[in-house]
Specification:
heterodimer; A: about 220 residues; Rossmann fold; 2 domains; five-stranded parallel sheet; about 40% helix; B: alpha+beta; Heat Shock Protein 90; five-stranded mixed sheet; 9 helices; 12 strands
Chain lengths: ~220, ~500
Amino acid sequence: MRILVVEDEPRLLRNLAKALREEGYAVDTAEAGDDGLFKAETYDYDAVVLDVMLPGLDGWQVLDRLRKRKRTPVLMLTARDAPKDRVRGLDTGADDYLVKPFDLEELLARLRALIRRSAGQVQPSLKVGDVLIDTRARSVTRAGEPIVLTAREYAILEYLALHRGKVVSRTELYEHLFDESDDTLSNLLDVHVFGIRKKLGRDLVTTRRGQGYCIE
Amino acid sequence: MFTKSIRWRLQLWFAFLLICTLSGFGIASFEVYRTRQLKQVDERLGPRVEALSRIVRGPQFFRGGRPPFEPGRDRRGGRPPGQFDSFPPPGSEDRRLPAIPPRDLLESVGGPSLPLPPDLERTLREDLETGIYFLIWNGDGTRLDASTNAPADLPRPPAMPPDSGPHFRTRDGHREAYEFNREGRAVLVGTSIATDLEARRGFALMLVGAGLSVLALGLGGGWFIASRALRPLQDISATASRISGGHLAERINVADTENELGQLAGVLNSTFARLEAAFAQQKQFTADASHELRTPIAVLLSEAQTTLARPRTAEEYRETLEACLETAQQMRRLTESLLELARFDAGQEKLRHEPVDLAEIVRTSVELVQPLAAEKDIKIHCDLAPVQVLGDEVRLGQIITNLVTNAIRYNKPAGEVRVQTRLDANTAVLTVTDTGPGIAPEDLPHIFERFYRADKSRTTAHGRTGLGLAICKAIVDAHGGTIEAQSAPEAGSNFIVRLPQPTG
């Protein structure tokens, strides 16, 4: 999953990016509204965390312009908690709203829910055959047995499972799982998919030659 | 409770004035009516009493004076003297009327028969029939005679000087005129005025009725007028109470600005507008302050939670602690600034008022910020004339440090800062000029507002709170001075502080 964080307080931005990366997300950052808008329009993020008070364009303007082109889930982050601000945020097209100061746990939970909903899933756990993916704990069990995956392996598995039945191209996977600072080569994908197959069975992830990967 | 209400008080005053006017008018009318009534009666009685008095003068009625009638004339013979030519009917105002007593009266007096023209006799009889009665007393007070309709037991009226004209009195529903002649005889002519009294009572009742109607009409009209006059006041009061209930955007509908209430409404509206603006400013300030405080708390929380989420190396903990420390210090600066402003707002900030040399304070402050200037390669030029002001050395130093620090921060690389003190017409003037990019015209009116940031970015990393200039303004205000900024884009900014000179 790839997330864009737009926040002008540098320490908070740095920390949020760190926390999200540790959760296995690929994270891009922007400190100003116009920069954030550019990135949000250029890449297909799974979610955008958007502060309201920003230099350049403010959060409302970014959201407004982004909504004209994309349906990327947006979580607004603001220190303003008046009900009319929340209403305005949701009415402008924000998918969720979180008031500063927030609990990191809550932010992560809301992001997971946002991503799940936008992929059309309602359950926090995904079941593929005898494989159960718990997106809250980021853990995987096979027939009740816990299976240890690397962060990359888990991210690929979760993305494919969220978009179950759909062929996901290598580019898409690459876009959603690696952030702009990653210099990982795309063929590393094969290595991670190989790892998933080794741990969860050969048939879980199928390769469509020339198209991408798919969980049936 | 009534007396508290303007409407009721107006109404009471109005009623009081109305009653005074009406009763004055009523009493005067009644008096005029009564006087005219009596005068009418008196004009009938007076000539008769005079005539009778002349007739009964002397033992033979004719001694002295001029006789009213020619004696010895045949009764039915020649014409009576000229006075009788135009004998007026009863009630006529002709004062020359010689009233002729009726035959029985004259006969009983015992004098020779008077030659009475028959029309006069008829008139006298008519008099008797209309209720006029005659009475004559001798000088010793015994009754000489009386007409048949005269009251039987009426005593002689109190004595009056002889021939002093008819005297009038009102007695028990009767009006009487009487006269004493030289012989001591008294003549009295009277009539019942019962019908007059009845008419008078009717007139009085009519007056009272009319007065009460006018009073009722007047009070009703007064109530209506008072209501109309007070309605704008009620509107104002209703609007004001809605505003005090929190609807600050409400205004009184000023339909007519010309009248007094319109002007009042205008004044109140402008007061409400200022109130609303002050509230909005306060609200904005609270929102800004909460925003500024929430952000560092968010940093603290997220730093700590991220770090505690999994085991870390000592180096990572150290980084987190440093970030937390830095954030906490930023919060401390912010809360200190906020408290400082709050104290100025509440008037709790105790400023010392001592004569100090502004130039000296500038020198000390510039020395303090010299390292920052050196770091940015900026030169500070001082042009200081000694200027005495009454003030707080520490606070004044704070202003100067703040302004000069700003001038250094918002300067072009290797720029200049010029600090000047001078005396300008009893005012101490401090100017801080920089060679920076200047302040945009749209930002210039706002830079002394709390949390106003021209660049909209939250550059807290530089340790700025967005309150520096607001605090400067608060300090200058507390000194009774003014602070203003002049700037043009690309031409640098110029901050001018004016402080009053110590007087005397």
